[in-house]
Amino acid sequence: MNRVAAVAAPSTAGPRSSWNRIAEAISGFVSDGLLALFARFALGSIFFLSGRTKVEGFLTVTEGAFTLFREEYKVPLLPPEIAAHLAAYAEHLLPVLLVLGLFTRLSALGLLGMTTVIQAFVYPDAWPTHLSWAALALLLVGRGAGPTSLDHALGIR
Fold first, then answer.
1. pLDDT confidence bin for 109, thresholds 50/70/90
2. What does pTM read for this prediction?
3. Residue range 96-107: average pLDDT?
4. Terminus-to-terminus CA distance in the chain, angstroms?
5. CB 99 within 8 A of CB 44
6. pLDDT confidence of 1, banded at 50, 70, 90?
7. Across the strands, what pairs with 60?
8. Concatenated DSSP letters for 19-74?
9. How far apart are CA 97 and CA 75, in angstroms?
10. CA–CA gap between residue 144 and residue 137 (Å, rounded)
11. What pLDDT is stored for residue 3 in this prediction?
């Protein structure tokens, strides 16, 4: 019986134990809330900067954006003029909500949907980039905004 317990008990010495102590210390420093904060800013900045390329002034969709949707993106089901407006507005609104941490899960879900459309219909060969965007969005959909957010302050999960 002592022999079984000795085999099952984790060793407190050796390289694995040392590594696990270091990993535990890092986990204490990099909290889930910090990860969520960085994910919100990273995903938000990607889409916000993309949205800025489609407008001039505050939110006037440019002729170049219409041309892009008409000739390159060719998103099915929506006329290019409507798709350009929807994308430009979503790429501004959803990132702002993400950075504020307000309605985070819904905003991240919207950006995950946009990523899926881009992957499926626009740039299927860019899957490594889209996979990283999807990972950030899924983290926020699944775990929420974290403690440094308006969601947390307002008691919204």
1. very high
2. 0.85
3. 98
4. 48
5. yes
6. very low
7. 56
8. HHHHHHHHHHHS-HHHHHHHHHHHHHHHHHHHHHTTEETTTEE-HHHHHIIIIII-
9. 25
10. 10
11. 54
| Mean pLDDT, residues 117-130 | 96
Closest CA to 110 of 141, 69, 132: 141
DSSP secondary structure string for all residues of 125-150: GGHHHHHHHHHHHHHHHHH-S-SSSH
Nearest alpha carbon to residue 103 among 44, 143, 145: 145
Angle formed by the axes of helices 80-100 and 104-117, nearest 10°: 140
Among 55, 54, 58, 92, residue whose Cα is nearest residue 73: 54
Structure tokens at 118: 């881009």
Lowest mean pLDDT among 8-12, 39-43, 46-50, 100-104: 8-12
Tokens of residue 114, six digits: 């946009």
